[in-house]
Amino acid sequence: MIELMPYTEATWKQFLKDGFNSTYFKEIMDFLVSEKRANHLIYPPESEIYAAFEKTPFHKLKVVILGQDPYHGPGQAHGLSFSVPKGIPIPPSLRNIFKELSSDLGISSPTSGNLEAWATQGVLLLNATLTVRANEAGSHQNQGWEKFTDALIKKLSKNKSNLVFMLWGKYAQAKETLIDQHKHIILKAAHPSPFAAHRGFFGCKHFSLANEYLRKKGIPEIDWKL
Protein backbone atom coordinates (compact mmCIF):
# COMPACT_ATOMS: atom_id res chain seq x y z
CA MET A 1 0.00 0.00 0.00
CA ILE A 2 1.34 3.43 -0.95
CA GLU A 3 1.14 5.61 2.12
CA LEU A 4 0.97 9.36 2.51
CA MET A 5 4.28 10.91 3.42
CA PRO A 6 4.63 12.43 6.92
CA TYR A 7 5.13 16.03 5.87
CA THR A 8 7.61 18.09 7.78
CA GLU A 9 5.14 20.98 7.75
CA ALA A 10 1.81 20.44 9.49
CA THR A 11 0.37 23.34 7.47
CA TRP A 12 0.51 21.46 4.16
CA LYS A 13 -0.86 18.32 5.78
CA GLN A 14 -3.84 20.27 7.14
CA PHE A 15 -4.32 22.14 3.87
CA LEU A 16 -4.42 18.90 1.86
CA LYS A 17 -6.55 16.97 4.36
CA ASP A 18 -9.81 17.29 2.43
CA GLY A 19 -8.13 15.93 -0.67
CA PHE A 20 -6.60 13.02 1.21
CA ASN A 21 -9.99 12.16 2.70
CA SER A 22 -11.85 12.33 -0.62
CA THR A 23 -13.37 9.48 -2.59
CA TYR A 24 -11.18 10.25 -5.59
CA PHE A 25 -8.05 9.99 -3.46
CA LYS A 26 -9.08 6.50 -2.35
CA GLU A 27 -9.52 5.67 -6.03
CA ILE A 28 -6.01 6.94 -6.74
CA MET A 29 -4.57 4.74 -4.00
CA ASP A 30 -6.53 1.70 -5.24
CA PHE A 31 -5.22 2.30 -8.73
CA LEU A 32 -1.61 2.55 -7.54
CA VAL A 33 -2.00 -0.67 -5.57
CA SER A 34 -3.29 -2.38 -8.71
CA GLU A 35 -0.29 -1.07 -10.65
CA LYS A 36 2.09 -2.51 -8.07
CA ARG A 37 0.29 -5.86 -8.05
CA ALA A 38 0.70 -5.98 -11.82
CA ASN A 39 4.44 -5.42 -11.26
CA HIS A 40 4.48 -2.07 -13.03
CA LEU A 41 7.34 0.21 -12.06
CA ILE A 42 6.03 3.59 -10.90
CA TYR A 43 7.84 6.93 -10.96
CA PRO A 44 8.75 8.84 -8.89
CA PRO A 45 9.75 6.56 -6.00
CA GLU A 46 7.10 6.39 -3.27
CA SER A 47 9.16 8.51 -0.91
CA GLU A 48 9.16 11.38 -3.45
CA ILE A 49 5.57 11.38 -4.75
CA TYR A 50 4.71 14.37 -2.54
CA ALA A 51 8.11 16.08 -2.76
CA ALA A 52 6.60 19.28 -4.19
CA PHE A 53 4.87 19.86 -0.85
CA GLU A 54 7.81 18.73 1.27
CA LYS A 55 10.34 20.98 -0.47
CA THR A 56 8.21 24.14 -0.62
CA PRO A 57 7.32 25.61 2.79
CA PHE A 58 3.65 26.59 2.80
CA HIS A 59 4.28 29.98 4.39
CA LYS A 60 6.85 30.82 1.68
CA LEU A 61 4.64 29.94 -1.29
CA LYS A 62 4.94 32.59 -4.01
CA VAL A 63 4.96 30.87 -7.42
CA VAL A 64 3.25 27.81 -8.90
CA ILE A 65 4.76 26.19 -12.00
CA LEU A 66 2.38 23.57 -13.30
CA GLY A 67 3.55 20.51 -15.21
CA GLN A 68 1.51 17.67 -16.67
CA ASP A 69 2.96 14.42 -15.31
CA PRO A 70 6.33 13.14 -14.10
CA TYR A 71 9.20 12.14 -16.34
CA HIS A 72 8.87 8.45 -17.20
CA GLY A 73 12.54 7.59 -17.78
CA PRO A 74 14.79 5.85 -15.23
CA GLY A 75 16.02 8.12 -12.44
CA GLN A 76 14.42 11.29 -13.82
CA ALA A 77 11.31 11.91 -11.71
CA HIS A 78 11.74 13.06 -8.12
CA GLY A 79 8.43 14.73 -7.38
CA LEU A 80 9.09 18.24 -8.72
CA SER A 81 7.69 19.31 -12.09
CA PHE A 82 10.34 19.79 -14.80
CA SER A 83 13.13 19.00 -12.30
CA VAL A 84 15.54 16.04 -12.34
CA PRO A 85 17.98 14.90 -9.64
CA LYS A 86 21.62 15.92 -9.77
CA GLY A 87 23.64 13.73 -12.09
CA ILE A 88 20.72 13.04 -14.44
CA PRO A 89 20.97 14.51 -17.98
CA ILE A 90 18.86 17.65 -18.39
CA PRO A 91 15.70 16.88 -20.42
CA PRO A 92 14.95 18.99 -23.53
CA SER A 93 12.06 20.99 -21.99
CA LEU A 94 14.20 21.94 -19.01
CA ARG A 95 17.06 22.92 -21.30
CA ASN A 96 14.67 25.33 -22.98
CA ILE A 97 13.57 26.67 -19.60
CA PHE A 98 17.20 27.38 -18.83
CA LYS A 99 17.64 29.07 -22.24
CA GLU A 100 14.74 31.41 -21.47
CA LEU A 101 16.11 32.03 -17.97
CA SER A 102 19.45 33.02 -19.51
CA SER A 103 17.80 35.26 -22.11
CA ASP A 104 15.49 36.87 -19.56
CA LEU A 105 17.80 37.42 -16.61
CA GLY A 106 21.29 36.76 -17.98
CA ILE A 107 21.69 33.71 -15.75
CA SER A 108 24.10 31.11 -17.10
CA SER A 109 22.52 27.72 -17.78
CA PRO A 110 23.24 25.42 -14.83
CA THR A 111 24.94 22.07 -15.22
CA SER A 112 22.31 20.33 -13.07
CA GLY A 113 18.59 20.10 -13.68
CA ASN A 114 17.73 19.92 -9.98
CA LEU A 115 15.28 22.73 -9.17
CA GLU A 116 15.10 22.22 -5.40
CA ALA A 117 16.68 25.65 -4.86
CA TRP A 118 13.57 27.18 -6.43
CA ALA A 119 11.25 24.99 -4.39
CA THR A 120 12.78 25.94 -1.06
CA GLN A 121 12.25 29.64 -1.86
CA GLY A 122 8.53 29.18 -2.46
CA VAL A 123 8.17 27.87 -6.02
CA LEU A 124 5.67 24.99 -6.00
CA LEU A 125 6.75 22.67 -8.82
CA LEU A 126 3.47 20.82 -9.19
CA ASN A 127 2.55 18.14 -11.70
CA ALA A 128 -1.17 17.73 -12.38
CA THR A 129 -0.60 13.96 -12.19
CA LEU A 130 1.81 12.91 -9.46
CA THR A 131 2.77 9.45 -10.72
CA VAL A 132 3.46 7.65 -14.00
CA ARG A 133 4.21 4.11 -15.17
CA ALA A 134 7.82 3.65 -16.26
CA ASN A 135 8.39 4.40 -19.95
CA GLU A 136 4.70 5.25 -20.57
CA ALA A 137 4.02 8.97 -20.69
CA GLY A 138 0.58 9.96 -19.42
CA SER A 139 -0.18 6.46 -18.20
CA HIS A 140 -1.59 7.63 -14.84
CA GLN A 141 -3.77 10.40 -16.21
CA ASN A 142 -7.54 10.28 -15.61
CA GLN A 143 -7.15 8.13 -12.50
CA GLY A 144 -8.04 10.85 -9.98
CA TRP A 145 -4.80 12.80 -9.60
CA GLU A 146 -6.17 15.69 -11.66
CA LYS A 147 -9.15 16.00 -9.31
CA PHE A 148 -6.73 16.18 -6.39
CA THR A 149 -4.49 18.83 -7.95
CA ASP A 150 -7.39 20.83 -9.42
CA ALA A 151 -8.93 21.05 -5.96
CA LEU A 152 -5.55 22.10 -4.59
CA ILE A 153 -5.11 24.89 -7.16
CA LYS A 154 -8.62 26.16 -6.49
CA LYS A 155 -8.03 26.10 -2.73
CA LEU A 156 -4.69 27.90 -3.07
CA SER A 157 -6.39 30.54 -5.20
CA LYS A 158 -9.07 31.04 -2.56
CA ASN A 159 -6.90 30.98 0.56
CA LYS A 160 -3.73 32.67 -0.65
CA SER A 161 -3.10 36.08 -2.20
CA ASN A 162 -0.59 37.45 -4.70
CA LEU A 163 0.61 34.13 -6.11
CA VAL A 164 2.26 33.89 -9.51
CA PHE A 165 0.88 31.04 -11.64
CA MET A 166 3.05 30.08 -14.60
CA LEU A 167 0.94 28.14 -17.11
CA TRP A 168 3.00 26.75 -19.99
CA GLY A 169 1.14 25.05 -22.81
CA LYS A 170 -2.54 24.33 -23.44
CA TYR A 171 -2.82 21.66 -20.76
CA ALA A 172 -1.64 23.97 -17.99
CA GLN A 173 -3.60 26.93 -19.36
CA ALA A 174 -6.82 24.94 -19.07
CA LYS A 175 -6.40 25.35 -15.28
CA GLU A 176 -6.80 29.11 -15.61
CA THR A 177 -10.48 28.87 -14.71
CA LEU A 178 -9.53 27.57 -11.24
CA ILE A 179 -7.63 30.75 -10.38
CA ASP A 180 -9.01 34.09 -9.17
CA GLN A 181 -7.24 36.62 -11.39
CA HIS A 182 -8.25 39.47 -9.08
CA LYS A 183 -6.07 37.99 -6.32
CA HIS A 184 -3.22 36.48 -8.34
CA ILE A 185 -1.30 36.92 -11.59
CA ILE A 186 -1.39 34.32 -14.36
CA LEU A 187 1.54 34.17 -16.78
CA LYS A 188 0.82 32.12 -19.91
CA ALA A 189 3.16 30.91 -22.64
CA ALA A 190 3.72 28.00 -24.98
CA HIS A 191 5.11 24.81 -23.50
CA PRO A 192 8.93 24.72 -23.27
CA SER A 193 9.16 21.42 -25.16
CA PRO A 194 11.23 21.46 -28.37
CA PHE A 195 7.98 21.08 -30.33
CA ALA A 196 6.43 24.27 -28.96
CA ALA A 197 9.02 26.53 -27.33
CA HIS A 198 9.55 28.62 -30.47
CA ARG A 199 5.82 29.40 -30.58
CA GLY A 200 5.90 31.74 -27.60
CA PHE A 201 7.86 30.25 -24.72
CA PHE A 202 11.13 31.81 -25.80
CA GLY A 203 10.88 35.50 -25.03
CA CYS A 204 8.01 35.19 -22.53
CA LYS A 205 10.19 36.67 -19.74
CA HIS A 206 8.17 34.94 -17.05
CA PHE A 207 11.01 34.90 -14.55
CA SER A 208 11.52 38.66 -14.56
CA LEU A 209 7.77 39.28 -14.74
CA ALA A 210 7.24 37.08 -11.68
CA ASN A 211 9.83 39.01 -9.70
CA GLU A 212 8.42 42.33 -10.86
CA TYR A 213 4.98 41.31 -9.58
CA LEU A 214 6.34 40.06 -6.26
CA ARG A 215 8.36 43.25 -5.83
CA LYS A 216 5.29 45.42 -6.41
CA LYS A 217 3.42 43.43 -3.77
CA GLY A 218 6.24 43.84 -1.26
CA ILE A 219 7.12 40.15 -1.38
CA PRO A 220 10.74 38.94 -1.53
CA GLU A 221 11.71 37.99 -5.07
CA ILE A 222 12.86 34.56 -6.22
CA ASP A 223 16.58 34.09 -6.82
CA TRP A 224 16.29 32.06 -10.03
CA LYS A 225 20.02 31.29 -10.18
CA LEU A 226 20.78 27.61 -9.58
Q: Spell the H/E element sequence.
A: HHHEHEHHEEHEHEH
Q: Portion of residues in helices?
A: 25-40%
Taken as a percent bin, the fraction of beta residues is 5-15%
In spatial order, strands of the major sheet run: 3-2-5-6
Short description:
With 226 residues, this protein is an alpha/beta fold. Helix content is 35%, strand content 11%.
Overall description:
The chain is α/β, with parallel strands linked by helices and 226 residues long. Helix content is 35%, strand content 11%. It is built from nine helices and six strands. The protein has helices at 10-15, 17-20, 23-37, 51-55, 92-105, 116-119, 145-159, 170-173, 206-216; strands at 42-43, 63-67, 123-127, 132-133, 164-168, 185-189. The strands form two sheets. A four-stranded parallel beta sheet has the order 3-2-5-6. Strands 1-4 form a two-stranded antiparallel ribbon. Strand 5, helix 8 (170-173) and strand 6 form a beta-alpha-beta unit. The mean pLDDT is 94.
Main attributes of the structure:
226 residues, alpha/beta, two-stranded antiparallel sheet, 9 helices
Which SSEs are present, and which pair or pack?
Elements: H1 10-15, H2 17-20, H3 23-37, E1 42-43, H4 51-55, E2 63-67, H5 92-105, H6 116-119, E3 123-127, E4 132-133, H7 145-159, E5 164-168, H8 170-173, E6 185-189, H9 206-216
Parallel strand pairs: 2-3, 2-5, 5-6
Antiparallel strand pairs: 1-4
